[in-house]
Amino acid sequence: MLPRATDHASPTPPHPVDEILPARRMLPAALQHVASMYAGLTAPPLIIGSALGLTPAQLSALLAAALLIAGLGTIAQTLGVYGVGAGLPLVNGVSFAVVSPALATAATQGRDGALPAIFGATLVAGLLCLLLAPVFCRLVRFFPPVVSGCVITLVGISLLPVAGTWARGGDAEAAGFGSPADLALAATTLVITLTVHRMLSGRFLGRVAILIGMLAGTLIAIPLGKVDLDPLAQAPLLALPTPFGFGTPQFVPTVIATAAVVMIVSMMESTAALLALGAVAERPVRDRTIAGSLRALGLATVLGGVLGSFTSTSYAQNVGLVSLSRIRSRYVVTLCGAVLVLMGFVPVLGSLVALVPLPVLGGAGVVFFGSVAVTGIRTLAKAALGTGHNAVIVSVTLAFGLFPVLDPDFYARLPAPVATVLGSGITAGCLVAVLLNYLLNHLGRGTEADPDAISAEQVTALDTADTVLGPKRSSDWTPFQPSGSPSGTPDHGRHTRGTARPAPAWPYVTGPVDPTDTGRHHRPHEVPAPPHRPDEVPPPLHPSAAHEGEPPPAVTENAVFPGPLHPLHPRPTGRPDRPRQRHSAEADPWQHPQTPSASGDSQ
């Protein structure tokens, strides 16, 4: 038997997300992710442990548990096995939103009973995330480009103040906070990173410019006395997290309620980071992707409650790193998770990463935090801001999202659960964007789109999406039913997609064609008349046809119209559509063809 022609065909290259890089490239890229997330990962355990007065051994165990859970959660996110994980280069870690509730719990439960109550509430919050994952994932339909673009932009803008704090030294209460030496070190790191990115553009070293910049900044900081070697000398060689090492979990209702709010905030922030990552990696985020990501998040949170960690979330700074380096392989982030697990068992490795001064990390953070905001701006460019109410949605959303960023005490006098939700600029902006998009673009008359911003193909597809223009057998005619609309009424809550239909079989009357005519409607043209039986009588045109006897314009298959409800689309008012005004023969030299008679002859 002769071999098939396809047997020798070259295999299809994998998507960049599924690409496996060589070890010499994968390891530096993974270490770059570890270095960019390490400060944000270790800050919450350090702050909480210091506030509770933990011993160095207890603090080391708290850090080891945070690193171990972050590594396991990251591996689960990237692999996406058995419905757990997103299958994207997404990094998990401890949520910073847990710091304030943990300190409040310490004030009410005391130092000895704080951690058992916190870890008991963390267990319940993780289970809540697992239960809500199948429901929460359906919210992706409420994230069109105008909403997701706002949220992704707010993710990047909200992280920029963190980079500014790191660039000044990290501790606002320290004596040398914001010193010229720290600012100069951050600026030097930034300049080195940009120089490497520009000079080595197109090469692999240019893609790991963040890592090179942080290494160079750390070497420069050593003679300046900005590198502290004490954590490296005091770190234990091995640390094995033990289940419930801080005591038997306690389930306090008030602490559980606060942890549930923090979990919902983390779920919303993680969904926003996942949407940004999908845009960067050019892999669409679907319902099952969000559900898998939230399952990994819930399992990591439950495991954190057992081993001594806190609520997990997805880190947006690593999304910016993917955008900047253009290394989209999820296996690079899998290796990053493996390094985090190793650091959890061997704290000395974590101390090596901790040698990077915060000003150096702040200088590098300006680049990859800003990259997230740029991704959001690119998404907003697809939302047609000159159309309808989208500009209003963006302006109000950015305002509400930036209020807590510019003034952290903006919602301080509200009830604690409300202040926790709105205190996150990402969460507040996400809620406002979804609500305004529904009220302005979906409720009532819908989007008042600008006809000048609509292409001719979209108008043509719109004219033929709901009706069949031209004669067709009445027995074969089926009204257009968009998905999600069982009754046949257009579903104005979603983007309507035109579906190509076969051309009518009945002959049309020929007419003149003017090549200079750029009007929206196609002029009649000559169509060959197919043979027909003498007893076959053509049915009348459907009443919704634009012009009787004209052939239907070409339909662009799967055309997406701007806005959920186009002004040219039939309105759900319950009133019959008014016929379009036709030009008279004196005003318009183009004569419309007449409807074929019952005998099949033209009138």
Q: Structural class from helices and strands?
A: mainly alpha
What is the molecular shape? globular
C-alpha Rg (nearest Å) = 30 Å
What's the helical proportion of residues?
40-55%
Largest sheet composition: 2 strands, antiparallel
Q: Identify the strand order in the major beta sheet.
A: 1-2
Low-confidence stretches: 1-8, 446-511, 518-529, 541-549, 554-577, 582-603
Rounded average pLDDT: 74
Strand content: under 5%
Q: Given the structure, what is the number of helices?
A: 18
DSSP, total strands: 2
The arrangement of helices and strands along the chain is HHEHHHHHHHHEHHHHHHHH
Distance between the termini: 63 Å
Structure description:
This protein is mostly helical and 603 residues long. Helix content is 52%, strand content 1%. The protein has helices at residues 23-52, 56-79, 99-136, 145-167, 180-199, 204-207, 209-221, 230-234, 253-281, 287-307, 317-325, 330-345, 347-354, 358-380, 390-406, 416-422, 425-441, 456-463, and strands at 92-94, 312-314. A two-stranded antiparallel ribbon has the order 1-2. Helix 3 packs across helix 9, helix 4 packs across helix 9 (253-281) and helix 4 (145-167) runs parallel beside helix 15. The chain is globular and about 65 Å long. The chain starts with 22 loop residues before the first helix and ends in a 140-residue tail after the last helix. The model is unreliable at 1-8, 446-511, 518-529, 541-549, 554-577 and 582-603 (pLDDT under 50).
